[in-house]
Design goal:
Elements: H1 2-5, H2 7-22, E1 30-31, E2 37-38, H3 40-56, E3 61-64, E4 78-85, H4 87-91, E5 98-104, E6 110-117, E7 122-127, E8 131-134, E9 137-138, E10 153-156, E11 164-165, E12 172-174, H5 179-188, E13 192-197, H6 203-215, E14 219-222, E15 243-246, H7 248-257, E16 259-260
Parallel strand pairs: 3-4, 10-12, 10-13
Antiparallel strand pairs: 1-2, 4-5, 5-6, 6-7, 7-8, 8-9, 11-16, 13-15, 14-15
Helix pairs in contact: 2-3, 5-6
């Protein structure tokens, strides 16, 4: 599978980002027009990964966070690259960031993904041949999830309060910075009931996580129950609604207790 071809490159990019984080100071943060944070590490890691992908798959589309590239709908493969997902926490020396590379097929369906969080020692990979793995071993079997309770954990975006009223949810709220990690944590940790992100999420934030969830037949869908249409996201526009991830049963439960603001 194409995604495995660049696995070593993603690991190498993680080493570069980790080394650069150690030398980073708060004053090195820059702000884009949408007020999101960007650093030199974002640009260097993106250039490294896109160069390797372009060499290995010259006929593939590459969609990235930091640089616009032409998109050809006739090409059979599309890579969605987030060089550092969670740049804000990365730039402050925290650990909740990752490198996220998603692979979409000719129909723009997520077919493979790599999420590498060096500081957390997490490497999630999904492809058609090996399924979903965590640090080289099959993802642990979570089984049927428990009902939402005070012991449940929900991974959330830092701006969730702008979109959702969480008072109907009785469990705990967690957030570490990276959307891609949030959307995969329910697959790794049994106490995590699900995740909500967006609607500001982009294709590079979610494609890899979606492929990993799909490999386990778990959901990654909009709060309004619609599937995610990646054709509408291919030009970099944000997702149209809040995104939910988790076991289908858990997603259904969360949909009943989460309310929109306003």
């Amino acid at each position: 599978m194409a995604i495995l071809t660049i696995l070593d490159d993603v690991k190498a990019a993680g080493a570069v980002a980790s080394e650069m984080q150690q030398a980073l100071s708060f004053s090195d943060r820059e702000y884009k027009s949408d007020q999101s944070v960007v650093t030199e590490a974002d640009r260097r890691v993106e250039a490294l990964l896109c160069g390797r992908i372009a060499t290995a798959y010259p006929g593939a589309n590459i969609i990235t966070e930091e640089a616009a590239r032409p998109f050809d709908p006739e090409r059979p493969l599309t890579f969605a690259v987030d060089p550092i997902d969670g740049t804000d926490v990365y730039s402050q020396g925290m650990n909740g960031w990752c490198i996220s590379v998603g692979l979409l097929d000719e129909q723009l369906v997520p077919a493979g993904g790599i999420i590498f969080a060096p500081c957390l020692d997490l490497l999630l990979v999904a492809d058609a041949d090996t399924g979903a793995t965590l640090n080289g071993s099959p993802l642990p079997s979570i089984g049927s999830p428990e009902s939402i309770s005070v012991r449940s954990n929900l991974m959330v975006t830092s701006r969730v309060h702008k979109h959702l009223d969480l008072r109907g949810y009785v469990g705990k709220i967690r957030g570490i910075g990276s959307a891609a990690l949030h959307l995969c944590y329910p697959l790794i940790y049994r106490a995590v009931i699900g995740a909500v992100e967006g609607p500001g999420a982009h294709i590079w934030d979610i494609a890899a996580a979606h492929a990993i969830n799909r490999a386990r037949d778990w959901d990654l869908v909009y709060l309004n129950s619609k599937p995610i249409d990646y054709w509408s996201l291919r030009d970099g526009r944000p997702a149209e609604d809040v995104i939910m991830a988790g076991h289908p049963r858990s997603v259904g439960q969360l949909r009943h207790v989460l309310r929109r603001v306003g």
